[in-house]
Design brief:
It is a single chain. By secondary structure, this protein is mainly α. It folds into 2 domains: 1-67; 69-159. Helices cover 67% and strands 3% of the residues. The protein contains 4 helices and 2 strands, in the order ααββαα. The chain has helices spanning 3-27, 40-67, 75-100, 126-153, and strands spanning 69-70, 73-74. It has a two-stranded antiparallel sheet with strand order 1-2. A hairpin with a 2-residue loop joins strand 1 and strand 2. Helix 1 (3-27) runs antiparallel to helix 2, helix 1 crosses helix 4 and helix 3 runs antiparallel to helix 4 (126-153). The longest helix has 28 residues, at 40-67. The radius of gyration is 25 Å and the shape is flat. It starts with a helix and ends in a 6-residue tail after the last helix.
């Protein structure tokens, strides 16, 4: 099985666990004299099986990511890089929005009408920040493509 297939398969137990959780919570209590629609204990047992499978799958995915080479490191390193690039992009984009007054636009109704109205001045270079955000977004896409390629290149490490 390829790493990409395991990543796709990981979604199934995650969805199943969430579905079981909802059913467990719905049947955890019932009115005296009534019977629950489902046996919450049995649902908990089913959830344990799902979580056990999920744990094995995640361990295999993590082992594979740690062993698979990409760039000058591993897929795990590339995932960390992508996560940090996303955080940087978010901060730079937010800073550009704040400096441009975009976050306060809902309070303003147009240009200043009176001399007594407050004037806001950007403390950061909005154009440079937007350009930097664009560069970061491009780098995120490139790293993500490399990760996706590696996901289809490497076989999942056996237990």
């Amino acid at each position: 099985m390829k790493l990409a297939e395991a990543l796709a398969e990981r979604g199934d137990p995650l969805r199943r666990a969430e579905h079981l959780k909802v059913r467990i919570l719905a049947n955890a209590r019932y009115q005296d004299g009534e019977s629950p629609a489902e046996d919450a204990s049995k649902l908990l047992s089913n959830l344990t099986v799902v979580f056990d499978r999920l744990e094995v799958l995640i361990c295999r995915i993590n082992r594979t990511n740690s062993a698979a080479t990409l760039r000058d490191g591993t897929v795990t390193d590339a995932l960390a890089l992508r996560d940090v690039l996303r955080m940087r992009h978010k901060v730079v984009s937010s800073a550009a929005d704040a400096a441009s007054g975009r976050e306060h636009d809902h309070h303003r109704y147009g240009p200043r009408q009176l001399r007594s109205e407050l004037v806001y001045v950007a403390a950061l270079p909005v154009t440079e920040l937007r350009s930097s955000a664009d560069d970061l977004a491009k780098e995120i896409r490139l790293v993500d493509l490399e990760i996706q390629h590696a996901n289809w290149e490497y076989d999942l490490i056996e237990e």
